[in-house]
Each structure stands twice: as C-alpha cells, then as structure tokens.
Give the backbone structure.
Amino acid sequence: MKDIFTDMQAKIGCPYLSDLPYYKRTVWFEMKRLCLSDYPKKQLEDFSRYVFGVPYAVIQEALTREE
C-alpha cells in the first residue's frame, strides 16, 4: 500500500515528516500532480488534516474546482 506521507516527503525533499505543514504551497502543487486514488481515503483524510488543518473533502473540492 502506498503512503502519501512518505511519498510527499520524498517528492518535495522535506527532511522530516513533521516539517510537511511548513511546505503547504509545495505540497499543494504536488497533490495536483499525484494520482490521489492510489491512496486509502483514511490516509488522505489524515494527511489533509495534518498538513492543511482541514478535512479531505475541502481539499478534494478545491482540487476539482481548479481543474
């Protein structure tokens, strides 16, 4: 199973998982490029709450609005 936390950490070159919230803009642009359906829904929910402080539904809506 894929892990969005470690995948995102590697993609943006973030040294520590705990630093991800400080890279919101970079994470946002990478999320637009990733195939989010490869990740479990619960993990996406945890990730969006951890990095952005909002439920995944908010992120999902914003991503579809930008496309």
In short: The chain has one domain: 4-66. The radius of gyration is 11 Å. Helices lie at 4-12, 24-33, 41-51, 56-66.
